Amino acid sequence: QQEKEDLQVKLKLREHLSQNAGKSEATPAPLKNVDLEMKQLQCKLKNSNTETTKQSTTIKSLKIQVREKEERIQELQAKISQFERDLTMKRHLIEDLRSRLKTNQENEKTSNEALESLERKVKALAEDKKASIDSLKQRFNAAMKEKSQYEQMYHKAKEELEKKDLKFTKLESKMIETECAMTDLETVASEQLHGLAKQSAQALGTLQKELLLTSDKVEEFKTFVKTLTKELHHSVQELRTKIKLAKKMEGMKACKKGLSQACLQLAASILNVSTTDLYEILQEGDDEETAKTKMEFEKDKEWLQHIQKLLEAQFPFASYLMDAVLEKLNEKTKLVEEYSSLMKHTV
User: Fold this and answer.
1) Peptide linkage before 28 cis (omega within 30 of 0)
2) Which residue spans adopt a coiled-coil conformation according to this UniProt entry (predicted)?
3) How far apart are CA 332 and CA 216, in angstroms?
4) Contact 31, 18 (CB under 8 A)
5) Which of 16, 53, 142, 214 is 20 to 30 A (C-alpha) from 304?
């Protein structure tokens, strides 16, 4: 602009000199030189005007780009705040699940105590049964003693024994019946105990097999989920790298088309800075790109940690795991669309 003003002042001075020279026709040769110099100054003025308009348009485009980047930063900050709110909600949910787990453990403890009390009652009943069997045996021994006494009384008094012979035979038959009943009870009880023990052993074996199979399935599922998340993370990182390379290639092409060394020197002289400083001003987006890459890395790290926590959490967690995987798949779809559009523009 200063050069433009100097040229306008010189042009006015030359016009004034030409008018004065027109009045005095004594010197025609210097007048031609003045007209030629005026034309040259007019050409320089036009060139400076066109260069000024170019620089103003580039400054406007740079301002628009800065404004767009500021809006993008505000959007990203809003998303970060939303993610923080989601994280707090998930933390509250984890605390709720932990409290539920604690209550379930307490309920299990009470049920175990009730089971132990029932086992003690069963043991007491078995002891009572054993005591009743011992009492019956004692009675049987007492009956045998009475029988021996009856035999002695038979030798002592045959008459009394003959009278009471019928009663003795009846008592003997009752004793036999009681012995048979006792043996039958013992056999039935032993068979039932053996059957119960066999059934419990079979049930424990099947339960152990099912538990091992279930644990193997759970481990396979965890391995599948970890592999899937790693592949997703790797593919998203590759897409981001491709997009950055495509953007750099597009920027390099645009710089080659739009700027030359003379333009850079002229812009540096107008802005009163060196060419190196002007190049650094044009490359200021690299720091922002580095910060964006760092933020994306932290976000991916948090996503992997979230997947690991979901796999280590208590049931149910399928819906939360599905939401996390869908989030990464949507991000991958957006990156694919962005990369395809960049490749179209580059081509």
Assistant:
1) no
2) 31-174
3) 31
4) yes
5) 214
Q: Locate all alpha helices (DSSP H) within 259-284, ordered by sequence.
A: 261-271, 275-282
Single pTM value for the model: 0.35
- Of the listed ranges 3-12, 14-23, 100-109, 259-268, the least confidently predicted one is 259-268
pLDDT digits (tens, 9 = 90+) for 265-274: 555 565 555 5
For residue 31, CA distances in Å to 36, 37, 44, 212, 224 come to: 9, 10, 20, 110, 92
Phi-psi region of 27 (alpha: psi -120 to 50; beta: other; left: phi over 0): beta
Indicate the burial class of 241 (C-beta count within 10 angstroms; 0-12, 13-18, 19 or more).
Answer: exposed
Lowest mean pLDDT among 34-43, 60-69, 119-128, 133-142: 34-43
Query: In whole angstroms, what is the distance from residue 101 CA to residue 320 CA?
Result: 18
For residue 229, how many other CB atoms are within 10 A of its CB?
Answer: 20
Query: What amino acid is encoded at 144 in this protein?
Result: M
Angle between helices 28-156 and 2-23 (to 10 degrees): 170
Say if residue 25's pLDDT is above 70.
no
For 40-92, the pLDDT digits (tens) are: 878 888 888 888 888 888 888 898 988 898 888 999 998 998 988 988 899 89
pLDDT at 210 > cutoff 60? yes
Indicate if the pLDDT at residue 256 is higher than 50.
no
Span 10-39, average pLDDT: 66
**Quick one: 197 exposed, middle or buried, by C-beta within 10 A (0-12, 13-18, 19+)?**
exposed
End-to-end Cα, the chain, rounded Å: 39
Q: What whole-number distance in Å separates Cα of residue 134 and Cα of residue 128?
A: 10
Say how many C-beta atoms besides its own lie within 10 A of residue 308's C-beta.
14
Classify residue 272 as left (phi > 0), alpha (psi -120 to 50) or beta: left
Report pLDDT for 289: 67
CB contact at 8 A, 342 and 250: yes
Closest by alpha carbon to 274, among 265, 283, 284, 282? 265
Burial of 236 (0-12, 13-18, 19+ CB in 10 A): buried
How far apart are the C-alpha atoms of 105 and 135, rounded to whole Å? 45
